[in-house]
């Protein structure tokens, strides 16, 4: 009888979960489009499968985000004053086309940027990681040469097209990471934060690579997962934290050989991309790291509130931020090893990246993209995700209105106190989601993905693995072993 019951549970786990069946808020919201999924949605052979629907949705949302930047595209990026902040349509991309020498055909990392262009004495070379610099350079090759505003507009459009491809890749990877929950990618596709911030900077490129790495990990391919995580780290530094999360989980599950494969592949991919620039343009390559180290307390951070309210210069903010980050990482590692069940990959990845954003000395509005796919993998509940997104949208408006107040002659916008409140709302939104994830780890019965007896559907070699090292309760078998349960060291 027990084997029959387990077989019935396994059969149910083979059926894709639709959000209207699984999530009360999604079911309620679906009334606006005709109600929960029914007979037609159950037909898996039809053209309108989840992946195609989500691709169309994310393209539509991305296009809406581009429309939101329309007033800046017309005039706001190139006129003096606070127009690009008042209309909340600022983007780094058209400004850096000229200020980092792309309009003048300078070669990133090799050609020094004249002070007259960079308008910043600390910037001598392009201050972005190598793979992002290549992304920016490829976009400049597709842009007609010139230093006039029209060329900068075209450069933004070219980058927007390339970033739209990244957005599609991101949604597809999230949808395919957990095979039973393809519709989880829909929240990424519909994310207001994605629409608003996708074309502010180039972060979406690294986010898509990192999501592809996690998808490959979920398919039991640690080597290829490492390659993608290494490439993501070559585009933006934060994805290296994913390796830390995987190490702790693999330590608990006795999967260190698989982690070693991922780590070696990540290091190899990073070196292949970076080594030519290190060898032939070492000063240009080092600009990103020296700029990150010398950068002072900036917009969006907890440290800015402390600095401005205390009047302290916070000259040691690098040390403070590093200490807080290390403390949080130790706490997350202890949580993972003490928890009654091994946390899922999505939960650990979300917590460690959230720790970086909370402790960092700057929080640019597009950094929300770092957390977006991880939040969906960690806590796929629409109510909680929307609460967090609402906090991020408020911060998105807050930073632009603060800059409008600071730069505009009429001081229209947010005062320092109001902006501090916006930062606080953003931090509370992140911490709210972190608290729910921590609760799910400590009380697994609250975990949405484990309520049907699953272990870690996106865990790859970790799914169904037996614990071999814990600091808390004795190691035990997961309730239902998955594909990873048959794989040893």
UniProtKB/TrEMBL annotation:
Residues covered by region (Disordered): 1-28
Bias kind Basic and acidic residues: ranges: 1-21
Parts of the chain that traverse the membrane: 49-67, 154-175, 187-217, 223-249, 261-281, 320-338, 345-363, 386-406, 418-438
Subcellular location: Cell membrane
UniProt keyword Membrane present: yes
Membrane topology note: Multi-pass membrane protein
Superkingdom of source: Bacteria
Stored Pfam families: GT87
Keywords recorded for this protein, A-Z: Cell membrane, Membrane, Transferase, Transmembrane, Transmembrane helix
InterPro entries in the record: GT87 (IPR018584), UCP010361 (IPR016570)
Family under the similarity heading: Belongs to the glycosyltransferase 87 family.
Full protein name: Uncharacterized membrane protein
Naturally occurring in which organism (per UniProt): Actinacidiphila guanduensis
